[in-house]
């Protein structure tokens, strides 16, 4: 199981929520791919998850996760006032949030946006060539390889390609129920 501390970009509230959510997910046989809190008035807690073996999750999995996480968050009460919970699969063209994602998807096309310019640019795209320490490696169109610090990325995601679809990304089993996969299971508190 991946520790949520491996997820590169989370603010303090998201880390606190992950501290609560990850044990619940792990007990159910899932892994956290991404956790985000969006909005201010009535925030939405978004959870993206996979099966621990990397398979995409189904609508039923989203519902199971939502019920379990919702119950724990209601008890812990980490967010004052009203908030909502959305649970979904990371999908095939998933965000790349953990170091292991860069190793797992070596050879597939990714797009990366950096927080600040690196080598004079913020956006990079190309096949993933691996991971070196805390740097993702991409091969650019001109054939050069660039090392992008994980902690300096604003966002990174796989690009949907025929090769990714053929491989079935995490798996074809979950992809049948997939659109961006499965569904958003939403729960309002």
TrEMBL record:
<dbReference type="InterPro" id="IPR036847">
    <property type="entry name" value="RimP_C_sf"/>
</dbReference>
<protein>
    <recommendedName>
        <fullName>Ribosome maturation factor RimP</fullName>
    </recommendedName>
</protein>
<keyword id="KW-0963">Cytoplasm</keyword>
<dbReference type="InterPro" id="IPR003728">
    <property type="entry name" value="Ribosome_maturation_RimP"/>
</dbReference>
<dbReference type="InterPro" id="IPR028989">
    <property type="entry name" value="RimP_N"/>
</dbReference>
<feature type="domain" description="Ribosome maturation factor RimP N-terminal">
    <location>
        <begin position="20"/>
        <end position="93"/>
    </location>
</feature>
<dbReference type="InterPro" id="IPR035956">
    <property type="entry name" value="RimP_N_sf"/>
</dbReference>
<dbReference type="GO" id="GO:0006412">
    <property type="term" value="P:translation"/>
</dbReference>
<dbReference type="GO" id="GO:0005829">
    <property type="term" value="C:cytosol"/>
</dbReference>
<keyword id="KW-0690">Ribosome biogenesis</keyword>
<feature type="region of interest" description="Disordered">
    <location>
        <begin position="170"/>
        <end position="189"/>
    </location>
</feature>
<dbReference type="GO" id="GO:0000028">
    <property type="term" value="P:ribosomal small subunit assembly"/>
</dbReference>
<feature type="domain" description="Ribosome maturation factor RimP C-terminal">
    <location>
        <begin position="96"/>
        <end position="161"/>
    </location>
</feature>
<dbReference type="InterPro" id="IPR028998">
    <property type="entry name" value="RimP_C"/>
</dbReference>
<dbReference type="Pfam" id="PF02576">
    <property type="entry name" value="RimP_N"/>
</dbReference>
<dbReference type="Pfam" id="PF17384">
    <property type="entry name" value="DUF150_C"/>
</dbReference>
<feature type="compositionally biased region" description="Low complexity">
    <location>
        <begin position="173"/>
        <end position="189"/>
    </location>
</feature>
<comment type="function">
    <text>Required for maturation of 30S ribosomal subunits.</text>
</comment>
<comment type="similarity">
    <text>Belongs to the RimP family.</text>
</comment>
